[in-house]
Amino acid sequence: MNASEQATNLELASKIATVVNLFKFEFPDAKSDLKPWKNDPETRELVDPDSIDIGFHFPGVSKSWRSRSVLIQIRFYQDPMTKLRRAIGLEVAGFDHRGEVWRLSTVENWSFVGESAPSVEVGNQLKQVCRHILDVFNQTSS
């Protein structure tokens, strides 16, 4: 679901802003998009209500990213017994004019799949950002 729609309280809005800042700190050329999904019936049918989705766009096709845009989907699970909601992983996808060209999932083996992948340096930076994002959403408040 679009990050702009998920920012329903100060805590979530703050965490979403932290994610944007983490990404832009590592990748300053990226422009954030808190509404990466169109608001039409077909798209809404595909949107996961248990995710926070943020897009990032580069000024052109980035050679190190091998894409022009990146979509980050932060996936959540709420335990029915404890009611605790945790980030269980991230799905990150790179897109160019043809559509999706690579994907990274932190749920399984943290490897890139697709017809291309970001450079090793960018891939490692992205994985580090993913770790930080999971920390942001799973830190316990004292």
TrEMBL record:
This chain belongs to the protein called Uncharacterized protein
Q: Which source organism? A: Anabaena subtropica FACHB-260
